[in-house]
C-alpha cells in the first residue's frame, strides 16, 4: 500500500524535480492536462515581451535579419529534431498539425501514385483524432482515393496489399494507447505502403525515433507536451529519401528556394524548407522556443529516457492509487497497463457522470479533461502526466480529490453538469 510519505520520499529523490521551477503553475492547481495545453514556461512572458518590445518595437523590419526571425522555423526544428530521432535539417516548426498533415499526406499520395498507382486506399483507425480523419477524407475525395478506417489495429495487415498510405497517430488521444512505430512502419513498407505518423501526443512525452523507426512522414503538435502555448506552431518531418522528391501543394513563397528573388515561377527550396508556406508567426514561434527550452533542459539529466521513466512511474502510481482508493466507484481503466503500449496519459471510463466528475475536479483545482465515448467505449476522464512539472505527491492529492468527488457524489451538483463549449 502506497502512502503519502512514500510519494513525498519519491519527490525528494527525483532527479528531475528542479525542472518544475521552469514553469508557472498557479497556486492550488494540480495540472493533469499537459496533453491538451502544456503549462506556461516561466520564461515565456519576459521572452515574448522582449520580442514585442525590442525586436518588433525597435528593430521593426530589420528583426527578420537582426534577430534571426527568418530562419526561426528551421532553428527550432533542428532543436526539436533531437527529441524525435531526427537529424538537423529534417524538420521545421510551422503551421498547425492539421495543415502539416495535409502537406505530408499530399506528398505521400503523390509518391504512391507514381510508385504504386494500383493502390487506392488510405488506411487509418476510426479512433484516430478527427482532424486527421477529416484531412484524409478531404484529400482522398480530391485525389480519388478511399479512406478505409479500422476498428482494431489487427485489421490493418489484411488491407496493406491495397494500401497506398498507412496514417496513424502514435499515441491515441482518447485512450493513451501507443503503437509500436517501428513494427507498424516495417509492416507497411514490407507490403509496399508508406507510413505517415501523427506525434501530437508523443513529442516531448515519449521517446520517438523517426529515422530508426522507419517512418516516411511525421507531424506533431507544439502546444501539448512541448509547452509552446495556445495554438503554438506545429512541426513537420519528412524522411530525407522523400524530402527532395516533390513539392507539397501549399507551395507558398516561404518554401521557395529564393523567396526574395521574387521570381514569378516556383522553385522549391532544397529539403524540408519547402514544407513552409507563408510568413511565419514569430511571436508564437517565440513561445514555442520557450517551451522547447523546458523539454531540452532535461537533456543533462537523462533527456527523453529520464522523462519517460518518470512518466511511467507517475502513471503507474496513478493507476495503482485509483484502483486501491477508488474501488467500487465504477471507474474502468482504458489505457493499457503494458508500458510499451502506454503514452503519458491515463484514461478512465465511467458509464455515468464522467463529464461532471471532471468539472467537479476542476473546481477543486485538479485539471484533467473529458472525452465523449462512442459505441465501443463509455465516456472518458482523461489525465495527462507531464513529468517536467508533476510530482508523486501531486498524483496522491489528485487521486484523493477523485475519491472524495466520487464518495460524496458532489459531481451530481447542477453546476458540474452544464456543458461548456470546450470540454
Ligand atoms: C492526434 C492529434 N492530432 C492533431 C490535433 C490537433 O491539430 P491542430 O493543432 O491542427 O488543431 C490533436 C489535438 O488534440 C491531436 O490530438
From TrEMBL:
Binding site for pyridoxal 5'-phosphate: 97-98, 129-132, 169, 198, 201, 223, 253, 279
SUPFAM superfamilies registered for this protein in UniProt: PLP-dependent transferases
Short name of any one Pfam family annotated for the protein: KYNU_C
Pathway of action: Cofactor biosynthesis; NAD(+) biosynthesis; quinolinate from L-kynurenine: step 2/3; Amino-acid degradation; L-kynurenine degradation; L-alanine and anthranilate from L-kynurenine: step 1/1
Assigned keywords, A-Z: Hydrolase, Pyridine nucleotide biosynthesis, Pyridoxal phosphate
The keyword Hydrolase appears for this protein: yes
Cofactor(s) needed for function: pyridoxal 5'-phosphate
UniProt catalytic activity: L-kynurenine + H2O = anthranilate + L-alanine + H(+); 3-hydroxy-L-kynurenine + H2O = 3-hydroxyanthranilate + L-alanine + H(+)
Domain of life: Bacteria
Catalytic activity, EC: 3.7.1.3
Residues found modified as N6-(pyridoxal phosphate)lysine: 224
Keyword flag Hydrolase: yes
Function, in words: Catalyzes the cleavage of L-kynurenine (L-Kyn) and L-3-hydroxykynurenine (L-3OHKyn) into anthranilic acid (AA) and 3-hydroxyanthranilic acid (3-OHAA), respectively.
Subunit (UniProt): Homodimer.
Family the entry assigns: Belongs to the kynureninase family.
Classification via HAMAP family: Kynureninase
Protein name stated in the entry: Kynureninase
Species of provenance: Pseudorhodoferax aquiterrae
Upper lineage: Bacteria, Pseudomonadati, Pseudomonadota, Betaproteobacteria, Burkholderiales
Amino acid at each position: 500500500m502506497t502512502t503519502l510519505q512514500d510519494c513525498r520520499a519519491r519527490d525528494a529523490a527525483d532527479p528531475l524535480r528542479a525542472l518544475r521551477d521552469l514553469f508557472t503553475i498557479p497556486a492550488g492547481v494540480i495540472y493533469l492536462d499537459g496533453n491538451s495545453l502544456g503549462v506556461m514556461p516561466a520564461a515565456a512572458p519576459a521572452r515574448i515581451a522582449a520580442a514585442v518590445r525590442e525586436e518588433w518595437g525597435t528593430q521593426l523590419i530589420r528583426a527578420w535579419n537582426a534577430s534571426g526571425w527568418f530562419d526561426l522555423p528551421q532553428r527550432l526544428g533542428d532543436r526539436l529534431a533531437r527529441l524525435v530521432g531526427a537529424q538537423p535539417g529534417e524538420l521545421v516548426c510551422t503551421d498547425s498539425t492539421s495543415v502539416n498533415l495535409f502537406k505530408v499526406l499530399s506528398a505521400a499520395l503523390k509518391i504512391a501514385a507514381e510508385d504504386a498507382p494500383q493502390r487506392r486506399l488510405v488506411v487509418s483507425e476510426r479512433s484516430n483524432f478527427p482532424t486527421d480523419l477529416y484531412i484524409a477524407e478531404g484529400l482522398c475525395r480530391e485525389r480519388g482515393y478511399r479512406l478505409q478506417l479500422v476498428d482494431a489495429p489487427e485489421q490493418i495487415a489484411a488491407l496493406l496489399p491495397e494500401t497506398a498510405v498507412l496514417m496513424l497517430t502514435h499515441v491515441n488521444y482518447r485512450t493513451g494507447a501507443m503503437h509500436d512505430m517501428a513494427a507498424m512502419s516495417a509492416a507497411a513498407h514490407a507490403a509496399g505502403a508508406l507510413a505517415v505518423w501523427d506525434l501530437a501526443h508523443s513529442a516531448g512525452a515519449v521517446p520517438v525515433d523517426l529515422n530508426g523507426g522507419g517512418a516516411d512522414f511525421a507531424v506533431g503538435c507544439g502546444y501539448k507536451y512541448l509547452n509552446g502555448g495556445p495554438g503554438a506552431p506545429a512541426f513537420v518531418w519528412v524522411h530525407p529519401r522523400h524530402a527532395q522528391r516533390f513539392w507539397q501543394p501549399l507551395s507558398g513563397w516561404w518554401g521557395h528556394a529564393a523567396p526574395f528573388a521574387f521570381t514569378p515561377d516556383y522553385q522549391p527550396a532544397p529539403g524540408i524548407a519547402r514544407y513552409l508556406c507563408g510568413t511565419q508567426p514569430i511571436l508564437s514561434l517565440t513561445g514555442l522556443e520557450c517551451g522547447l527550452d523546458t523539454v531540452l533542459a532535461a537533456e543533462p539529466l537523462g533527456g527523453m529516457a529520464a522523462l519517460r521513466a518518470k512518466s511511467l512511474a507517475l502513471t503507474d502510481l496513478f493507476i495503482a492509487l485509483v484502483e486501491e482508493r477508488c474501488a467500487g466507484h465504477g471507474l474502468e481503466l482504458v489505457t493499457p497497463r503494458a508500458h510499451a503500449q502506454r503514452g503519458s496519459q491515463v484514461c478512465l471510463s465511467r458509464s455515468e457522470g464522467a463529464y461532471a466528475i471532471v468539472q467537479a475536479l476542476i473546481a477543486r483545482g485538479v485539471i484533467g479533461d473529458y472525452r465523449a465515448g462512442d459505441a465501443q467505449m463509455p465516456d472518458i476522464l482523461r489525465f495527462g502526466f507531464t513529468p517536467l512539472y508533476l510530482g508523486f505527491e501531486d498524483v496522491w492529492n489528485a487521486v484523493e480529490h477523485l475519491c472524495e468527488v466520487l464518495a460524496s457524489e458532489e459531481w451530481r451538483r447542477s453546476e458540474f453538469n452544464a456543458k461548456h463549449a470546450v470540454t
